[in-house]
Write a structure and sequence with these properties.
The protein is of the alpha/beta class. It is built from 7 helices and 17 strands. Helices cover 24% and strands 29% of the residues.
């Protein structure tokens, strides 16, 4: 069984940064991810608030970070962690879809997945006009009529991206104001991207592909059907917390892992960082938490 000082689960900004900091402390470090390197960060079209870059696509920043991380840590993509078993304070068994590993510490950077609306037609037309990542699937809809559902940063960024690639895009939001950051709201206004306020997506219709949607204006309690080619849903995230709950890690009411300011959980030698730890869902925060988690793991191993 291969042995490591630290095993990091997840290779988004938090996981990659944790790998850099752990490796630089001389810890033998392995990063495992069930998908490809980058996680949800790959879906960020452009960032204008990451220090050092006025504008940078998420994929590009991940590539830079990956290259740096590989100097200090091993990264195994497409290797899903299926179970964690705490043997004792100095031995944790990590079982994946391929093999078992032994570690002294584990940092959970498992992130989140897209929250579903649960409306009629959402599951039926998944991949047939219903999507959750504008950057991934938006190019299929150049010149097409698109609705983005949501009011946060992801919805605003998705709408702006779709506008740039030539889609006819509008935002549907159930409230009368967006949660997105001010500069994103200003860009939406600058681009004249329409926002349908006080309205919920009630139903998705079509045959082989999405053809129309039913929207419910809550303010006047009226439903209308509109022809549409595609829908991108951006209504928040659900944390990937199953590995944590299985080993008794404390989970908050919203499903996020509870940590202290040093990213320690209630379980010895188990740490959490990034979106799975809740709080401010920002790239730079995930990086900071990843660094803190790695340094806490190193500190605890010196005791």
């Amino acid at each position: 069984m291969d042995e490591y000082d630290v095993i990091i689960v997840g290779s988004g900004p938090a996981g990659l940064t944790a790998g850099i900091y752990a490796g630089r402390q001389g810890l033998k470090t392995l990063i495992l991810d069930k998908a490809v390197i980058g996680g949800a960060a790959l879906m960020v079209p452009n960032m204008e608030n990451y220090p050092g870059y006025e504008l940078i696509p998420g994929r590009q920043l991940i590539e830079y970070t990956k290259k740096q991380t590989l100097k200090y840590a091993q990264i195994n993509e497409i290797e899903e962690v299926q179970k964690i078993n705490i043997k004792n304070e100095d031995e944790i068994k990590v079982s994946t879809s391929k093999k078992d590993y032994k570690a002294k510490s584990v940092i959970l950077c498992t992130g989140t997945t897209h929250r579903k609306l649960g409306v009629k037609g959402e599951s039926e037309f998944l991949g047939k006009g219903v999507f959750y990542c504008a950057v991934c699937d938006g190019p299929l809809f150049t010149g097409k009529r698109i609705l983005v559902v949501g009011g946060g940063n992801a919805a605003a960024q998705g709408a702006l991206f779709l506008d740039v690639i030539g889609s006819y895009v509008a935002i549907v939001h159930r409230r009368d104001e967006l949660r997105a950051e001010k500069y994103l709201q200003e860009k939406l206004e600058e681009k004249n991207i329409p926002i349908i306020w006080d309205t919920e997506l009630d139903e998705i219709k079509g045959d082989m592909l999405v053809k129309s949607v039913v929207l419910h204006n809550k303010k006047i309690d009226k439903k209308n059907e509109y022809d549409i080619d595609g829908i991108f849903i951006a209504v928040g995230e659900v944390p990937f917390n199953s590995l944590a709950t299985d080993i008794g890690v404390e989970i908050g009411r919203s499903g996020y892992i509870v940590t202290d300011k040093s990213q320690r959980t209630n379980m010895p030698r188990i740490y959490a960082a990034g979106d799975i730890a809740g709080g401010v869902n920002q790239w730079i925060v995930a990086c900071g938490e990843g660094a803190v988690a790695a340094l806490s793991a190193y500190e605890d191993m010196q005791k």
